[in-house]
Design goal:
Layout (H helix, E strand, L loop, with lengths): L1 H28 L4 H23 L8 H5 L16 H11 L5 H13 L13 H36 L4 H15 L2 H12 L23 H21 L3 H15 L2 H8 L4 H13 L1 H5 L1 H11 L2 H6 L5 H11 L2 H29 L5 H5 L1
Length: about 375
């Protein structure tokens, strides 16, 4: 097993490198980079932008108003650069590191990432790691509690459906699951806001932030209540469509095991149905469900919370990444990509190890041989 783990760890490096290369190459062809973002601001705030760029380049004097008014050559590389002083464009490029060729910028970035130095945000002027750590509690709270609740609902419901396969209970719960799965989480979030967060009817729940403004002044019990009070609606919105697939996976896993010979033998020995179900079937049927928990958490954490964060005014990783993509804030974009890809690859390894923990009969080394 140790050899398998070492091989998987060794594969992380080329996999991570390939993902970074592809994404970096794609971004080079995307219009509207950080230089163009600054150029787009020059029309209305030329003086402010010039001062900011001059300060970032060691206090050099920026171009005057006459230089902006000139219909100079400009830079053919950037949209909207016509009429701007070429020296001003060069200072912007130097500020963002675009005075170097793409391949050189890429290798410099990799060198920094190897030291876990992810740079400073272009537009927030703060270290990327600090921004991610600041936003992490919101996204982890949403992802962790959503995953736990989804599992707490899905596993018992899937088992109940498998035991009552074909009954009215199975039919009606399947219909409810399909309806819940068909409703997008963000649409249900809007409905919850309208009904319970002061939209048009009741105002039982807050609509902004993970905690109240006076959270530091509350007792630990009140802090806990306040925390879950703020999480109630966004987590509910994310749970609604998240348990359908897991319920059916649990049901189908149990149905497959229930019809196997060892179950019939256990029943023939006179064991109770509960003993057969939870003493024999559960361990085999729940292998794929339980082992997939780490991956499910990562999936919910990084892919399902953007619109929920926007609707409920939660400042988490989803919103941070969305804003970075809009502004072409490359340090945040690539820093987040590196961290979350590395985390995802490690979690995939943990998921494989979970299979062995749940069922020691599984041996990945013999399978690969």
């Amino acid at each position: 097993m140790l050899a398998y783990i070492l091989r998987r760890l060794a594969l992380i490096v080329p996999t991570l490198l390939g993902i970074m290369v592809i994404n970096f190459a794609v971004v080079q062809f995307a219009p509207g980079g950080p230089v163009e973002q600054v150029i787009a601001q020059v029309t209305g705030t030329a003086a402010d932008v010039t001062a900011r760029v001059s300060g970032a380049t060691g206090g050099e004097t920026g171009p005057g108003a006459g230089a902006f008014a000139q219909a100079a050559e400009g830079s053919a590389k950037y949209r909207g650069a016509q009429g701007l002083d070429p020296e001003f464009i060069k200072r912007i490029e130097k500020q963002f590191g675009f005075d170097k060729p793409a391949h050189e910028r890429f290798f410099l970035m990799l060198g920094q990432y190897a030291r876990f130095d992810f740079g400073v945000s272009y537009f927030k002027d703060r270290p990327v790691v600090d921004l991610i750590i600041e936003k992490l509690p919101v996204s982890v709270s949403l992802g962790l509690w959503t995953t736990l609740i989804v599992y707490l609902i899905s596993i018992p419901l899937g088992i109940a459906k498998a035991v009552r396969d074909g009954s009215p209970f199975d039919t009606w719960t399947s219909a409810a699951i399909v309806v819940g799965y068909a409703i997008p989480g963000f649409l249900f979030a809007v409905l919850l806001v309208v009904l319970f967060a002061g939209g048009s009817f009741l105002q039982w729940f807050p609509l902004r932030g993970l905690t109240s403004d006076n959270w530091d002044q509350l007792s630990w019990g009140a802090k806990l209540v306040d925390y879950f009070w703020h999480l109630a609606l966004p987590v509910t919105a994310m749970v609604i469509g998240g348990f359908a697939g897991l319920v059916m996976l649990t049901k189908n896993s149990f149905l497959e095991e229930i019809n196997k010979l060892y179950v019939l033998t256990a029943r023939a020995k006179g064991l109770s149905e509960r003993r057969v179900l939870y003493g024999h079937v559960f361990r085999n049927a729940m292998l794929i469900v339980i082992a997939g928990f780490p991956s499910a958490f990562i999936g919910i954490l990084f892919t399902s919370s953007l619109l929920i964060e926007v609707i409920f005014s939660l400042d988490g990783l989803g919103l941070l990444g969305f804003e970075a993509a809009l502004k072409r804030d490359y340090p945040i974009m690539f820093g987040s990509l590196f961290i979350f890809t590395l985390l995802g690859l490690v979690v995939n390894l943990i998921s494989d190890l979970m299979y062995v923990i749940v069922d020691p009969r599984i041996d990945f080394e013999s399978r690969e041989a």
